[in-house]
Each structure stands twice: as C-alpha cells, then as structure tokens.
Amino acid sequence: MVGVYNTGFNRMNEYAPIPGEFSGWDGEKCGSAGEAKRYAKFLVQEVKPFIDARYLTLPGPRHTAAVGSSMGGLVSLYFALWHPRVFGHVAALSPSLWWGDRVVLRDFSKLRKKPAVRLWLDMGTAEPGWEAVRLLRDTLVNRGWKPGDDLAYHEVPGAEHTEHAWAARIGDVLKFLLGRQPEGRRSQI
Fold first, then answer.
1. Is pTM beyond 0.70 here?
2. Domain span at residue 144?
3. What is the C-alpha to C-alpha distance for residues 113 and 109, in angstroms, rounded to an integer?
4. CA distance 139 to 54
5. E-assigned strands of 51-185?
C-alpha cells in the first residue's frame, strides 16, 4: 500500500479533471486549472513504475487499486476512465461529484464500453448534496457495472464529510478491493 500525500490547498488543482472555481476556507473564490490528467500521468508513469521496480508487487491491474476521498475520490474515479489497464480497482469515498457541474456523471454516461474496473462508491447522508451519489450509481449500472459484483455502493447513515468518517469505513473498502472476487478476478496479497 502506498499513500501519496497531497499538496494541501493545491490539491484542488491536482485532483480537478477540468478547470473550475471553488470557495476557499475563507469563503474567497479560487480557481483551479484542472491538472488531474497530469497527476494521473505522474502516478502511472513515475510513482507506480518506481514502486514496482523496488518492491515485490504484482503490477497488473487485477492487483492495483486507487483509493481517494473527497477530491481524491473524484480523481480516483477518473483513473477508472483514463487508466483502466493500470488500475483494476477504484474506491471513491465521498467523491466531490459537484465539481464542474457534475462533469464526472456526464463523462461516465458517455462511456461506449465499460472498463474492466471494480468500483467502490460511498457517501455519508450528512454530507451536502449526498443524493448525487445515487445518480452516479445509476449511471454506472446503466453502463454495465453490477452491484454486488464489480460495484459496491453504500449510503452511510449520518456520516459526514470528514477523515474520521472515511477511516471508519476503510476496512470495508479494503475487503472489497482485496478480498474474495468473482472467479477470474482474484487479487493476491
């Protein structure tokens, strides 16, 4: 397991799939250039090869996952779209679906062929706009993901948009990503 630390406030720029605006902690409007493709390229072309060259790993997509929360959850969803031959499993905890007027929903709805990626998708019911996660779930199902097979979907009653809430569910996420899988899709640990 490799944890990639974010750059703090600049994480919005790193994780945003398209340019956009957001409100800073002080309420001031801030802009993002939408550098998620550069971030994904960095992970795929530099970080993952470095790890695979120096540690005993199973480098294929069946053994490689991306997990993120909030904006990290959003960019992780894009890894499923942009790099399914690298990331065979993706978990998005409380993804920032609001970014770019829900561009992620539009991008997944345009899929012509479902990538061979297992997805975990969740959201706490105490999070602002949490109902949008249902729209993404429906979009995924319409594009071929099967709940209970290659899609795990959870609405977490009362859970908030906090690291504490995500930490409480990471065990279930890891069991889904690394545990027993349908025949032919088994990960080795």
1. yes
2. 58-178
3. 10
4. 39
5. 65-69, 89-93, 118-124, 151-156
End-to-end alpha carbon distance in the chain: 10
| pLDDT tens per residue, range 118-139 | 999 999 999 999 999 999 999 9
- 76, part of any domain: yes
141 alpha carbon, distance to own chain's centre: 16
Q: Is residue 29 domain-resident?
A: no
Domain assignment present for residue 158? The answer is yes
Number of structural domains the chain divides into: 1
Give the whole-angstrom CA distance, residue 79 versus residue 61.
Answer: 11
Residue from 107, 89, 105, 93 nearest 37 by CA: 107
CATH number of residue 152's parent domain: 3.40.50.1820
Q: How far apart are CA 46 and CA 40, in angstroms?
A: 10
- Per-residue pLDDT tens over the stretch 82-108: 999 999 999 999 999 999 999 999 999
Q: Which residue bears the tokens 């859970």?
A: 159
Please say whether the beta carbons of 16 and 99 come within 8 A: yes
Q: Give the C-alpha separation, 135 to 64, whole Å.
A: 26
Residue 77 lies in a domain: yes
Tokens of 90: 């993706």
